[in-house]
Amino acid sequence: MPKKKGLTSFLISFFLLFHFILTSGQQLNYPLNFRTTQQVNFLINKSDSIGLFSVKPVSENYLHLLNISDSILINPERDKNYLAKHKANWLYRKLRKEDFIDFKTEGFRLRVNPLFHFEYKKTQNIDETYYTNTRGIEFKGDIGQKFSFYSSFYENQSRFVDYISDYVMEHRVVPGQGAAKILNNNKYDYSRASAYMSVSPNRNFNIQAGHSKHFIGEGYRSLLLSDNSSNYPFIKFSIEFGQFQYLVLWNQYQLFEGAYYNYHYRKYGAINFLSWSPKPGFELALFEGVTWPGNTADNPHKFTANFFNPLILFRTFQYGLNAEQNVGLGLNLRKRIGKFEQFYGQIVLDDLKMNTSSKNKYGFQLGIKSFDLFRDKLTRQQLFVLAEYNQVAPYTYTYEDPLQSYSHDNQPLAHPAGAGLKELTGIVNYQFRDLYVEFKMNHLLNSIDTLSSNFGSNIFLPDDGTGAVENQVGQGIKNTTQNMNVVLGLLINPVTNMKIYIEIQKRTVENAIRTKNKLFFSFGLKTNLNNYYYDF
Q1: Backbone angles phi, psi at 404, to 5 degrees
Q2: Strands (DSSP E) along 46-107, which ranges?
Q3: Rounded CA gap, 217 and 4, in Å?
Q4: Helix (H) or strand (E) holding 74
Q5: CA dist list (Å): 280 to 11, 64, 72, 328
Q6: Minimal CA–CA distance to 175: which of 128, 227, 138?
Q7: Residue 120 to residue 461: CA distance in whole angstroms
Q8: Nearest-angstrom CA–CA distance, 441 and 474
Q9: Which among 14, 154, 263, 416 is least buried, having the fewest CB atoms inside 10 angstroms?
Q10: In 29-39, which positions are buried (b, 16+ CB within 10 angstroms) versus exposed (e)?
Q11: What is the secondary structure of 152-202 as a DSSP string?
């Protein structure tokens, strides 16, 4: 495997430095899982504290600093009657409400949990079975009051249904998880690892570094930065001052062709993000992202100190939106309608051409959600509802040199379907105690290419100026994809979000070349700490 240089070497030095300078709660992040994220969002939305929440994951300590109780997440009263009668039932406590190993001494805490995902899947009227077999482990801990660490590792074997297998064969990665070793008959072997260290010298300043991913926004999708891709090395600085939060995020991305162990093209992402929250329930944020080219023998690039420039908009004014560095701008908004409802939206600008609007590269998102239509009036019951619309112009996130596309590990860093799309998503989740039912539907319109065409949906093809004069979503070969999922599940342990579930998925694809309808039936047991997007 190629040697990791640059940002990776800096990360190692960073870890060692902060390991020795620390002198002395908890700086761990909440899992970047959609349901957990929405629960935290709910707590901040109905609070009268000013909360800055655009960038996820958010640290567990952040809610405590806002004087917000997170009991809705950890539920300390869970099964108290049973446990009062069976105080010695160690196995039950570990299964239902505790970390598997929880070791504490003065100034130090270490927790360890097994992680897994066992799933069995069948398709309608086809005598074929599919499966996922995942085993993993996580370590998380605190040293003193200002330093926390996290690490997890997963080993996986899967046999995927056809459309996911086609994706893996084309991109050489399992969506959101990493490079795949291709076996046979739609079977794949793959692994993934995540780690970070979090330091808060004071209550307003936090530094994190590691190998993970992030999400910017309030919705199901993000058009600025999502957790759709694999993990990447990063360093993140965030500081709060009054109504403002300022964040600097440095990432290292890569692309590869053929086998994962072949040559990797490395590039670098620098994100500056300024949030403003003048009153509870309202937040407006400005996003600037720059993707810097890496060096190759055929196309050398000078890596300058400007990459580390923390001043937002400086590089945009210096380079413009159409330069060697792939620059993108964006806005993110969330607005409390009531303590139980929220409006949100995003705008992304990738390239502006003043002489014509038909070639502009942009996207926008509009969404509304209710965290609980019951308004906390029914004990331990919640009804979450979300409706979201996303639209992205053709060729957004692309670049003249496809190596400079807004991507990592051959996957988009924003919307999973790339660009040139319109999408409507709806989610309804009803939870009664530990039992939940969820319905999710997304309807996607985009374009598919022929061997000699590029209609602007595939961000890994170059934006070389040969596209249509009047670009519009669905140009060329119009393609519509609809995914509908119904899940019935039982939450077993909220610490690892362990649940057992049954799922039905219907997927329909229609275009001028073919029409496909598939119905999938699944059941499984998993610790659900991450988002993996298969609805594309």
Answers
A1: -95, 10
A2: 55-56, 101-105
A3: 31
A4: helix 71-74
A5: 36, 16, 20, 28
A6: 227
A7: 35
A8: 20
A9: 263
A10: bbbbbbbbbbb
A11: EEEEEEEE--HHHHHHHHHHSEETTTEEEEE-STTEEEEEEEEEEEEEEEE
Whether the bond into 402 is cis, omega within 30 of 0: no
What does the buried/exposed string (b/e) look like for 294-331 if buried means 16 or more CB atoms within 10 Å of the residue's CB?
Answer: beeeeeeeeeeeeeeeeebeebbeeeebeeebbbbbbe
Joined together, the tokens standing for residue 111 give 């927790």
Encoding tokens for residue 322?
């159409």
CA distance 488 to 426: 17
Q: How far apart are CA 163 and CA 308, in angstroms?
A: 40
> What's the residue count for the chain?
536
- Candidates 102, 108, 98, 90; CA nearest to 26 is 108
CA angle, residues 486, 489, 492, in degrees to nearest 5 = 160
Amino acid occupying residue 332: N
Retrieve residue 503's tokens.
Answer: 């799922």
Q: What is the DSSP string of 267-306?
A: EEEEEEEEEE-SSTTEEEEEEEEEEEPPP-SSS-----GG
In tens digits, the chain (536 residues) has pLDDT values of 444 445 555 554 444 444 433 433 578 999 999 999 999 999 999 999 888 899 999 998 888 888 887 776 777 667 777 777 776 688 888 898 899 999 999 889 999 999 999 999 999 877 789 999 999 999 999 999 899 999 999 999 999 999 999 999 999 999 999 899 988 888 999 999 999 999 999 888 999 999 999 999 999 999 999 999 999 999 999 999 989 999 999 999 998 876 666 667 888 999 999 999 999 999 999 999 998 887 666 666 666 777 888 889 887 777 665 556 778 999 999 999 989 999 999 999 987 654 455 567 899 999 999 999 999 899 889 999 999 999 999 999 988 888 889 999 999 999 999 999 999 999 999 999 999 999 999 999 999 888 778 888 999 988 765 555 678 888 888 999 999 999 999 999 999 999 999 999 999 999 988 899 999 999 999 999 999 999 98
Report the distance separating Cα 215 and Cα 40, nearest Å: 14
> d(Cα 413, Cα 326) in Å, to the nearest integer?
13
Backbone angles phi, psi at 458, to 5 degrees: -85, 110
Nearest alpha carbon to residue 152 among 120, 116, 183: 116
Nearest to 362 by CA among 335, 398, 388, 402: 398
